Amino acid sequence: MEIKDSVAIVTGGNRGIGEGFVEELLDQGVRRVYVCARKLADAEEAAKRDGRIVPIELDVTREDQVAAAAAKCADVTILVNNAGAFQMQTLMGAPDLSDARQEIETNYLGMLSMCRAFASVIEKNGGGAIANVLSAAGIVAIPGMGGYSPSKFAGRAASTCLRAELAPRGIHVTALIVGSVDTRMADHIDREKTQPRDIGTAGLLAIKHSIDEHDTDPHAIDVRAFLGRDPHTLAKSMAAPFLNQNKA
Q1: pLDDT (tens digit per residue) in 185-222
Q2: Contacts of 19 (CB under 8 A, 6+ apart)
């Protein structure tokens, strides 16, 4: 689909990858972009940059706010599901299930809630696209990423299911596999990182060409290649920190 003159909504659009998408959407000529943030003040701050930005208060885990956003943003043709949660806990090391629950509710159920709410909006406007911002941790299980990795696996599976359901309604669903990116969420990672704007560029490319699943950066590409070449060794390398810990 064409990006120019379209209308987009980006969850978590006030910083990081979401901000990268917003910048790229504006540069590619969208008519309007709704920037969503859990705190309205954060979205309003982002809106100061360009008159085409409309700030929206939105917590994707709250169905009432999702429904309100769908009612208010009735001209959307592109949905970018970017809002995410990473609690930096392992499954067994966390004190309780609250962190895993938050990751599932945001990264999977929140994404699904947005798709359900905006499918009718996009269809009514003649069709369009949904881009789900996922992770290399959604194609390779990473024990150190606790509930985050399973939540992204769920998001990837849901993207495949939604693609089949929504295609007859003129909506294409693309799953974006994102690796190491220079965001606040990845502050703890010590490796070369891709800039958020580059993820936005890759994401819009996938939307334009109706790509089902797209690896957005060098790290994601490397993980995919390693998975295809030697999945057993990759799994062992992911588990290594825990094995070494037990030997200490």
Answers
A1: 555 565 577 999 999 999 999 999 999 999 999 999 99
A2: 13, 46, 196
Contacts of 2 (CB under 8 A, 6+ apart): 208
Task: Give me the sign of the Cα torsion angle 129, 132, 133, 137.
Answer: negative
How many Å apart are CA 107 and CA 120, to the nearest integer? 21
The one-letter code for the residue type at 40 is L
Beta partners for 172?
Answer: 129
Span 109-134, pLDDT tens digits: 999 999 999 999 999 999 999 999 99
Hey, what long-range contacts does 40-47 have (CB within 8 A, 24 or more apart)?
42/14, 42/15, 43/13, 43/14, 45/14, 46/13, 46/14, 46/19, 46/22
Q: Rg of the Cα trace of the chain?
A: 18
Enumerate domains of the chain plus CATH numbers.
7-247 (3.40.50.720)
